[in-house]
Amino acid sequence: MINLYIDFDGVIVNTIDITYKMASIQGIKKDYTNYLQFFQNLNWEEVLEKATPINDSFNEIRKIIASNKFNVAILTHVTSIHEAEAKIKLINKYLENMTIITVPKSVSKTKVINTKGSILIDDFPHNLDDWSNSGGYGVRFDLDLDGKGYPVIDRLSQIISMF
Ligand SMILES: [Mg+2]
To answer: Distance, CA 75 to ligand 1 centroid (Å)?
Structure first.
């Protein structure tokens, strides 16, 4: 079985759309420090209540597990313990026995996972660059099917036939 890591924000749920809209309404400046502060102060329970699964993501993950080709885990960046708690709670509501790894936003996902031969599905090209530079396979999730140089999917179960 191949290790498969699936990003959360912008892949499983549409939190990116929701949080960026909130940031723009609040007039948050688009630099790293301001955004980090904004994300650290967010009420994540509220964000995740508003968020909706992208393209039936939770059922798509169940299909991936049922294929028996992959060891599946969710690998998500967080800016606070509160954010981690809220995300874990939501994922547990939909998926039983799922491995969930939360990584501090300041740390590359490649620093907590043995990436060699492992797949990462992520919407953020920078994360895929890091991943492939450290020996993993990057697959971009994008609703416009723009791979930015990576194989691309817009429904998670499409990964089954790719490997
Ligand atoms: Mg993401």
So the answer is: 10
